[in-house]
Amino acid sequence: MELLEKLRILADSAKYDVACTSSGSERQGQPGKIGNTVNAGLCHTFTADGRCVSLLKVLLTNICAYDCKYCVNRRSNDLPRAAFTPRELARLTIEFYRRNYIEGLFLSSAVLKNPDYTMEQMIHALELLRGEYGFNGYIHAKTIPGADPALVQRLGLLADRLSVNIELPSETSLNLLCPDKGRKAIFRPMGQIARTAQENRQELQLYRGAPKFAPAGQSTQMIVGATPESDYQILNLTQELYKKYQLKRVFFSAYIPVVEDSRLPAADTKPPLLREHRLYQADWLLRYYDFQAEEILDRENPNFNPYLDPKCNWAVNHYHLFPVDVNKAPFEMLLRVPGIGPKSARRIRTARRQQTLDWEGLRRLGVVLKRAQYFITCKGYAGPHSPRREMVVRSLLDPKAFGYGSYQTSLFEDPSGLLGAAPQVQQLAEEGMAPALAAKTVEEEAVKCLAEKL
Amino acid sequence: MPGRKALIPKDLIYWYDGSYEGFLCCVFQSYQNRELPTDIWQLLRPETTLFPQVEIVTHPGQAQRVEASIRKMGPWIRRLVMYAFLNDSPDKEMKLLRFLELCYREGPQAARQLAHPDVAAVVELERQVSRESGKYLEVLRFQEREGMLGAVIRPHHCVLPLLQNHFCDRLPQEDFVIFDNSHGLALLKRGGKVEYLEFEKPVILPTPEAREKQYQDLWKAFFKALTIEERRNEALQRSNLPKRYWEYLTEMQP
After folding, report:
1. Among A18-32, A122-136, A331-345, B29-43, where is mean pLDDT lowest?
2. Cα dihedral B37→B41→B43→B49 (10° resolution)
3. How many CB atoms lie within 10 A of CB A85?
């Protein structure tokens, strides 16, 4: 088979893996080798679905012994199959890397024969790339559930980041949809990676030249919308993964029907993109905004509000805590003001040590005053004069939920905006209402309902 | 330096050679004469003004003294000044001079008043430059020809010096050249040495050799295969990667 055809098949099979980050590792170039890594990671391009491409993301092979129901590569699916030789893969990585197409390699694989055999093949390919080809750039490798711990160890010494996908948010769902992978097979390597990484950090403190084990940590991903778990369950699991296994990232992937099966949602189900988006927003609140999962959702409200991002939703529910004085409020509280993100919060903190902030000053710092105005006071601004509740709510609504993209195009111009809109909007549109009218109707409804809550 | 007196505004226009040293000499001159000019030009402009124009000649010695005074105020201020100077904005010199005056007068702490108009202006200049140079670390594309790598970019700001370390560190074995078509400046790394060359006409990369073509096709095929059709969202693509970067992107060519 030609290399071009192979690449097409093995990239196509890998594309549902969402993680494509090259972050968490800072390594300088070395004479005689090729490559370095940048801590923040670099996104080299963006595909037509708007997702970033950072790494050459391919499977070593898509020939699979397993039959996981939700997966394109399952044994029973009729699909062209291919496999790279280690040398083909190494050469391709180097040639792409030299041209600055990519930051490195994301290597995953279907289960060829059995987990151990597959991992050995992956290790062989990475050893060739790191050794003979002198590749010093980023490598993200996926461990195969059920493989020997000794192989996970070897893989971690070659890769910057490791990942074990937990696939589905609960054990019941896992047993139902992928009977070949047990819960144990997933959490055991995750625990092993977390422990080894910790030991490795201690080793590195004692001896700087010690070989590094997965310096960019580990990540995981799960499919959202294939099974009945609530957002609260998913977010709690996410928080636990960060705390217990020190994961660097948890990725979510909106379920896209790839097969007709009685245990799965109907094949014409739309991917729950807005829900996925809300999960990522909540995930950011956990990682950068000092939120706890229980503050974002709880047993009574186990699912995200489709019209508000989770931070604005929190502010609506805690409206009595506002307004806060930007010149005095603790940093953690600044982070909770709608319209102030970590960057502007840090700028405010730096600036207010030197000067008293007024309205113009906040604007210069980059605070989104359209939202923040209802939640702050500053020098010369004592907060809004008895604001109409509808106005407050309207400023907080997430335009995405109503089909307004980041480009401020409305559904009049671009009906494809419906893809990421709230399910209620999609439903009205499906029933024959003009998309723009559907969006407006749902928006007014949401404003009324939220204003009452305030 | 802190505690210096304020400069007195004067109806004068400075003009200099456009180099960083030249600009530092403008700072020197304005302190020597205790004057704040109304504007600073790169080279003499043909337009007529009511104000007298003063040519500032570049003296390496003066530039060094100003450079030392900036260095003394810490890495944050030095970075702001150097990055902001690479900005293509026509009023960067005046913004920088006002910013430096503030720092000299009140001490380096003044630069932390991020909401101060003179600080915010320079921070914004710096932000634009580092954003663009950061983007070019990602979207620059090399082509191979006769064993050497070449790339063309067309940035708003003069980001080439900020790309140098990254690519030299990353590709120690390679010889490469990056042409900045907007500024007529090229970064050439050959045999472990780096030099900057000026050129007149915009560079057009030649049609690729067979082997190069093969890798370009592989990359395009990979790029295409990655799109998930059910999620197609070109507006999101454009907001993450504005069209002005597409000109030299291999994967965006037909």
Report:
1. A18-32
2. -70
3. 15
* Dihedral sign, Cα of residue B43, residue B101, residue B124, residue B38: negative
**Contact call for residues B205 and B150 (beta carbons, < 8 A):** yes
Contact list in A for residue B233 (CB cut-off 8 A) is: 48-50, 405, 416, 419-420
Residue A361: closest C-alpha in chain B: B115
Among chain B residues, the shortest Cα distance to A58 is held by B222
Using a CB–CB cutoff of 8 Å, tell me whether B194 touches chain A: no
- Closest residue to A364, CB basis, from B110, B120, B251: B120
Prediction ipTM score: 0.93
Query: Over the stretch A360-369, which tens digit does the pLDDT of each residue have?
Result: 999 999 898 9
DSSP state of A378: B
Nearest-by-Cβ selection for A100 from B140, B230, B239: B140
Q: What is the DSSP letter of A301?
A: S
How many angstroms separate the CA atoms of B7 and A442, rounded? 59
A431 CB-near residues (< 8 Å, 6+ apart): none
Structure tokens at B15: 């003009």
What tokens does A373 get? 């105005």
Distance CA B238, CA A315 (A): 31
Asked if A34 lies within 8 A of B173 by C-beta distance, the reply is: yes
CA distances from B88 to A80, A163, A181, A328, B82 (A): 52, 43, 57, 38, 13
Q: Which residue of B has its CA nearest to A9?
A: B225
Burial class (CB in 10 A: 0-12, 13-18, 19+), A268: exposed
pLDDT tens digit sequence for B176-190: 999 999 999 999 999
The structural domains of chain A, ordered by start, are 3-296 (3.20.20.70), 387-454 (no CATH)
The ranges assigned to domains in chain B are 8-131, 140-252
- How many CB atoms lie under 10 A from the CB of residue A205? 9
Q: Which residues contact B21 (CB under 8 A, 6 or more apart)?
A: B58, B60, B63
pTM of the model: 0.92
